[in-house]
Design brief:
The complex is a heterodimer of chains A (316) and B (169). Chain A is an alpha+beta fold and 316 residues long. Chain A contains 12 helices and 11 strands. In chain A, the strands form 3 sheets. A 5-stranded antiparallel β-sheet of chain A has the order 4-5-8-6-7. In chain A, strands 1-3-2 form a 3-stranded parallel β-sheet, covered by helices on one side. A 3-stranded antiparallel β-sheet of chain A has the order 9-10-11, sandwiched between helices. In chain A, helix 5 (89-97) runs antiparallel to helix 9. In chain B, a hairpin with a 2-residue loop joins strand 1 and strand 2 (11-17). Chain B has 2 domains: 2-78, Ubiquitin-like (UB roll); 86-164, Orthogonal Bundle (DNA polymerase, domain 1), CATH 1.10.150. Chain B has helices at 23-30, 75-78, 86-93, 103-118, 137-143, 154-164, and strands at 2-8, 11-17, 49-52, 55-58, 71-73. Chain B has 6 helices and 5 strands; from the N terminus they run ββαβββααααα. Chain B has 169 residues and is an alpha+beta fold. The chains are: A alpha+beta (316), B alpha+beta (169). Chains A and B meet through helix 2, helix 3, helix 5 and helix 6 of A and strand 4, helix 4 and helix 5 of B.
């Protein structure tokens, strides 16, 4: 690890101001992804702002019926919350499908949204990577690409977003609340929070320098039957090849977001009109324009079949 | 350098550490508590599992300075020769290891894991999210997936945990 200085933040606004003031500063909460990357010197912050002492670990009801999830709510606690289990099952299921018990005890809501890709070329510091070293090239393109994106990728990057939680939040249309260095707050719909790689795959979210996530809010419960179906190489403690987050209503309408296929949680609202007609037309519309590689073309078929299994269970 | 005070196995320990020191390195290199093991050092193997404020975490993926005032329980704090924790005794009885390197992490993880079930935390293996988890082998396997045993003692580990949990294997 590169040396860094360390401070404990006393308020969200102060944390944001400190981050904007000091070049190379990063927030640390759970640290489960950041410290891994710091050990490999993929991340090398000169200054760490520990935000764990900020009282952002509550899940509170919203006046109009949704939930406000503090940025520091640990993944275990969010998954175990009775209201989440009852009203937002897709979110609880997604959290429980990710990582291990130890990681979920540490990992936070905001940190989960901000975790970085597990593309092996991003992790291999001996190889070029536009995300790690902008402009150096993409080693994944033309490499081993079984795990990589099939849609929304660019000539600069074909990495996927690793989060399960974020896929469920996309299906639920969560909103990310932040505070900026000047104290101004804003609400970012999750659809606009994560970015496609384009020419700048190192810029992964719409957050500004120093902008600090304070909470994620959920709209009033959607009802229906909720699913998070994750397909992976081993039964537990592995990232998704493909995952399907779905909220299905009795009449066959619903919402579907995909994980493991793109640089961000993948949802195409217009394609959801096809859901009552079945998985094949729906997935064709969701993955319209997909450009898989020879290594990962199976993901397109797998996504359709995973959705078919979810729709069958929803009807059952 | 940064000062931090930890409560390790019931005893307050004051340390002055490089900010880069992980909790694992603080325990092993500065407090000579070498029961917690460094396997992968990247949160993938579970050998470094300890309990902080009663919750199991990977001590390799957290900085010591982030734990000012926290209560840390390591394998040494769970039990000692002659006065073993029931989970330690069950691992011996059921031969829940071969080389033993992952064992301290397995035992810390399993003790905390049973508390998670008691507290009503669901898992990927829990069929009904609105009902309490059942203590099945499937639940134990899923909840222990963050601890790798390269010798493959898994089935005996499940037997040991099952016995401590109060259900016959």
């Amino acid at each position: 690890m590169k040396p860094f200085t360390y401070e404990r933040a006393r308020s969200p606004a102060e944390a944001a101001a400190a981050a904007a003031r000091q070049p190379g500063a990063k927030f640390i909460a759970g640290g489960t992804n950041l410290l891994d990357l710091m050990k490999l010197q993929i991340e090398a912050p000169a200054h760490l702002i520990d935000v764990n002492g900020l009282a952002l670990d509550k899940i509170e009801p919203m006046p109009e019926g949704g939930l406000r999830i503090g940025a520091l709510v640990r993944n275990t606690d969010l998954a175990a919350d009775q209201r989440v289990r009852r009203d937002y099952g897709v979110l609880s299921r997604a959290l429980l499908a990710g990582a291990s018990g130890q990681l979920r005890n540490k990992a936070t809501t905001a940190g989960n949204l901000l975790q970085r890709t597990r593309c092996p070329y991003f992790y291999d510091t001996a190889q070029p990577c536009n995300k790690r070293q902008p402009g150096s090239g993409c080693s994944a393109i033309g490499g081993v690409t079984r795990q990589h994106a099939v849609i929304g990728s660019s000539e600069a990057c074909i990495a996927t977003h690793p989060s399960d939680m974020a896929i469920a939040m996309r299906a639920l249309d969560a909103v990310v609340e932040t505070v900026k260095a000047d104290g101004a707050t804003r609400r970012i719909p999750i659809a606009e929070f994560h970015r496609l790689p384009g020419e700048t795959p190192h810029i992964e979210t719409s957050l500004e320098a120093g902008e600090f996530i304070t909470a994620v809010t959920l709209s009033p419960p959607l009802g229906g039957r909720q699913f998070y179906r994750k397909v992976r190489d081993r039964a537990s403690y592995a990232f998704a090849l493909v995952s399907v987050a779905a909220v299905m209503q009795r009449d066959g309408t619903g919402r579907v977001a995909l994980g493991g296929v793109a640089h961000k949680p993948w949802r195409v609202e217009a394609a959801e009109a096809e859901l009552p007609r079945g998985a094949k037309p729906a997935m064709a519309a969701i993955l319209d324009g997909a450009r898989p590689t020879d290594d990962n073309a199976f993901k397109v078929t797998l996504a359709e079949r995973t959705l078919a299994s979810v729709l069958a269970e929803a009807r059952g | 350098m940064s000062k931090v005070s930890l409560r390790v196995n019931g005893e307050v320990r004051n340390l002055e550490l490089d900010t880069r020191t992980t909790l694992l390195d603080a325990l092993r290199e500065h407090l000579q508590l070498t029961g917690s093991k460094k396997g992968c050092d990247h949160g993938q193997c579970g050998a470094c599992t300890v309990m902080v404020e009663g919750r199991r975490i990977y001590s390799c993926l957290t900085l010591a300075v982030m734990h000012e005032g926290d209560a840390v329980t390591t394998i040494e704090g769970l039990g000692q020769p002659g006065n073993l924790h029931p989970m330690q005794a069950a691992f011996v009885k059921h031969d829940g290891y071969q080389c033993g390197y992952c064992t301290p992490g397995q035992i810390c993880a399993s003790v905390a894991m049973l508390e998670e079930i008691k507290a009503g935390v669901p898992s990927h293996a829990t069929a009904d999210l609105t009902a309490p988890s059942q203590l099945t082998a499937e639940e134990i396997r899923e909840r222990m997936s963050g601890n790798i045993c390269r010798c493959g003692a898994y089935s005996n580990i499940v037997d040991a945990i099952t016995e401590v949990a109060g259900r016959p294997a």
